[in-house]
């Protein structure tokens, strides 16, 4: 009987997993399906699983995740591990405001439970997305010891690698799916580091083998010197008089909804583990150790992986001018030069593709982060790129 390449790959994976399990203690992943959410009328029309995975020494850090299966073809579509920036911002920020399948109704009175409705341009229509509150201290993730209450860029890299491999051990049906890492904002510093660690762990025989294909970064902070130096030229070019940042009040709605006991019960959150949910936990002890992620991009490119880097062209926190500058510093040849890309016949931004399989795109009229401002355009951009099509 002839075995397909995918079938042979799965057999090898299962053999490796069996040997690994025989020589280690299998991790127990606490996961449950979510069928209903307060504020949404009726059962959820998509597959959502939440759960905890312990990482770090003695599984002292308990990471909470949300897994949305692709609404298209979960057996074959890519799996994206999505990390929210900050650091220490909750994954629910990306789910509710950027790329997830649900969003909150904008209301003036935050004392009432807001309604949930479906996002028309969710990225889960194209791929399965594994969101995680990361590291411990973000969202519903928590530490069981005082030692685990401290994190930093390099320790986080080890933990997210551990998290992903443990999650796949308990979801072997997704082992052969193309795997991508994605994130925005501060993850521009750390995600390339995580990706490099996963590559090297694969090469050392880490189990299970990760079917890594590439990474996606939106509005990415990348180099502290470059990013900050381009804020002034950007502000001048846009006719702004200061670099003040404004906070949206939609976030207050999320805070009110996420702290409802009924919502946390529906999501299967462990009682009395975090106190109140906050969008970004800036009080947590975190060490900012990576001054620039440019060297990691170089290493990943040398391995032949794909990447999509996109920026809102109205983002002053991480101006696209700085992002263009560090991409140019990589000195890769241009294979598809600066051109407009369209959605519904309208200019959605501009794009350029390089010989290292890196695509850079601007999103016209978008701020920080782009999908929050231009959901339709970003959804089309993601769909085209993840399927290997030109923007």
Termini separation (Å)? 41 Å
Structural class: alpha/beta
What gross morphology would you assign?
globular
Low-confidence stretches: 8-12, 17-26, 239-249
Largest sheet descriptor = 12 strands, mixed
Mean pLDDT: 86
User: What is the CATH topology classification name?
Assistant: Rossmann fold
Family: Belongs to the peptidase S10 family.
GO cellular component, one term: extracellular region
Signal peptide: 1-26
Main location: secreted
Write up this protein.
With 391 residues, the chain is α/β, with parallel strands linked by helices. Helix content is 31%, strand content 23%. The chain has helices spanning 5-22, 91-97, 153-169, 187-203, 224-229, 231-237, 250-258, 261-266, 294-302, 320-329, 370-373, 375-386; strands at 30-33, 48-55, 61-68, 79-83, 102-104, 116-118, 128-132, 142-143, 150-152, 179-184, 212-218, 285-287, 306-312, 334-343, 346-354, 358-363. Strands 1, 2, 3, 4, 7, 8, 10, 11, 13, 14, 15 and 16 form a twelve-stranded mixed sheet that branches. A two-stranded antiparallel sheet has the order 5-6. A two-stranded parallel ribbon has the order 9-12. Strand 2 (48-55) and strand 3 form a beta hairpin. It is globular.
